[in-house]
Design goal:
Layout (H helix, E strand, L loop, with lengths): L5 E7 L2 E7 L13 E3 L24 E3 L13 E12 L1 H4 L2 H11 L4 E7 L6 H11 L7 E5 L11 E7 L3 E10 L12 E7 L8 E8 L8 H18 L7 E6 L4 H7 L1 H4 L3 E3 L15 E6 L6 E7 L2 H4 L4 H7 L5 E6 L18
Parallel strand pairs: 5-6, 11-12
Antiparallel strand pairs: 1-2, 3-7, 4-15, 5-16, 6-8, 7-8, 9-10, 10-11, 12-14, 13-14, 15-16
Helix pairs in contact: 2-3
Length: 354
């Protein structure tokens, strides 16, 4: 099933107002659905594991003080969704075994990871990486992936991807699409996909992820324009999402939580809020670029825990070694595996209307 959103610009008093058109004569602008990747045979990865600074370290996450609109879940099972801009994730990194095994261990900390900045012409790059994710570590795993097309206004094209643990979540392949943008308001059009948890039968948490990577400039109006357009992406994905109200926009926004909340259209949507606050997400620890954004009153499944995974500390890396992995740390948030109503009560499908 192929879907798309297309953007058009309207004049507005004091600034630009964005709206979306879908279907009709714009079908030629649709991007073919991304393919769901099957993990390759374990054991055919990037060579023998290498260790950094004395060997493997059990990672720990550094939570932020977040709890916006989150019910008390008690002992309810949870899972973690992360976003990770892997700087220039392509040939150079794939040839460095230490970097690739570190990246694989990072991914294994989360049930879903939205990846930005895949930059390679090698169509087998992500399949090889997911093979490594599945074959590394102390126990075998079965992660799969979905990857979007190469995008970008410059000669350097990038791809988005979702890598997900099939023991915790499943994807609906009919919901995977890239947002269409005929007026070129976005440097890289978001990749959208819907998931559900696997552990809760008819009360499974269902949600839609919108993977984004904004362009920071250098012109001063570029980033505000992209963030304004993302507000309408968020609204339209929710409007056309077959009744799904749990829309999680995540990625590299090139803007911190305060800027998103107070100076952007998406932050002005009532109830929409970034989950990662007051911390830094880059490896130099001086900027917060990455985040997960939810509508707090709808996504009561948010368990009140979020933060930045400082893999430099977790794996005892020097600053230079950490930056070889990426100039961004992953950001993450924790959610209940159960679909919850607005009071934090498990909502069974077919009996509860949200």
């Amino acid at each position: 099933m192929q879907r798309m959103l297309s953007l058009a610009t309207l004049a507005g008093l004091g600034g630009a107002v964005w709206m979306f058109l879908s279907g009709g004569g714009l079908n030629q602008l649709a991007v073919p659905p991304a393919g769901v990747g099957q993990p390759a045979t374990p054991g055919a990865g990037f060579g023998s594991p290498a260790t950094w600074n004395g060997g493997a370290v059990t990672p720990t996450v550094q939570p932020t003080a977040a709890g916006i609109g989150a019910p008390a879940l008690g002992a309810s099972p949870t899972f973690r969704i992360a976003s990770f801009n892997i700087e220039v994730f392509g040939k150079t990194k794939s040839e460095d075994a230490r970097v690739m095994y570190t990246l694989a261990e990072i991914v294994r900390n989360f049930s879903i990871v939205a990846i930005q900045e895949i930059r390679t012409q090698d169509d087998s790059h992500l399949a090889n990486f997911v093979r490594l994710v599945n074959s590394s570590g102390k126990s075998p795993r079965r992660y799969e992936y979905v990857i979007g097309p190469r995008l970008g206004n410059s000669q350097s094209k990038e791809q988005y991807a979702f890598i997900f643990d099939t023991q915790r979540v499943m994807i609906d392949p009919n919901t995977v699409f890239t947002v269409g943008d005929p007026n070129n308001l976005l440097h890289r059009e978001p990749l959208v996909a819907s998931f559900r948890t696997t552990e809760a039968a008819d009360s499974a948490f269902t949600f839609t992820l919108v993977n984004v990577h904004t362009d920071p400039g250098p012109e001063p109006n570029v980033l505000p324009g992209e963030l304004a357009a993302l507000a309408e992406v968020y609204r339209e994905v929710r409007r056309t999402g077959r009744g799904e109200d749990d829309i999680i926009m995540l990625g590299d926004f090139n803007a911190d939580d305060a800027y998103i909340s107070k100076q952007t259209r998406i932050g002005m949507i009532p109830g929409v809020t970034p989950l990662v606050r007051g911390v830094y997400s880059n490896t130099r620890q001086n900027k917060l670029y990455d985040n997960l954004i939810v509508h707090a009153l709808s996504t009561t499944e948010y368990a009140g825990k979020s933060g930045v995974f400082n893999f430099g500390q977790a794996y005892n890396l020097s600053p230079a070694e950490a930056e070889q992995v990426s100039d961004h740390f992953p950001v993450w948030a924790e959610f209940s595996v159960y679909e919850l109503d607005y009071n934090g009560v498990i909502a069974r499908r077919g009996t509860n209307v949200r």
